[in-house]
Design goal:
Length: about 130
């Protein structure tokens, strides 16, 4: 029941953000995106961003952030991803719901290149 309740809360967020962006579209398109939103969605380590996408492959969702309208529509879309995750958690086969990165690891994708593995080993042992 907890996942169902969480799904309902996430749907409420989708509806709330959707209504907000539709009622304020023109003004939001004229306002710049905050620096923190630009950094979160466009740069830095997007590993955690991908980790919370359960209905898409890793790196398939890279929103365009050009103004405040884009920020709020992207937040709305994030909430929809949460809805999908909460829905997936309620299915009987959900014991194995995986993020894209976890699915890639389970499929045998190397966590890093062999050269990185050697470099990491050198750092750990102090050997060169």
């Amino acid at each position: 029941w907890a996942y169902n309740f969480s799904e309902l809360i996430e749907w409420h967020a989708v509806d709330t953000y959707g209504q907000f962006v539709s009622q304020n579209k023109q003004i939001l398109k004229r306002l710049p995106a905050p620096a923190v939103a630009m950094e979160y969605y466009k740069s830095g380590d997007l590993y955690m961003f991908d980790e919370f996408q359960t209905s898409r492959p890793a790196q398939s969702r890279r929103p365009q952030i050009n103004n405040l309208y884009d920020v709020f529509t992207t937040i709305r879309d994030d909430e929809l991803e949460h809805v999908k995750t909460m829905s997936a958690c309620q299915r009987l086969e959900a014991a194995m719901v995986m993020s894209p990165n976890a699915a890639a690891a389970a499929a045998g994708m190397a966590p890093w290149a062999e050269s990185d593995r050697e470099e990491n080993q050198e750092e750990l042992t102090g050997a060169k």
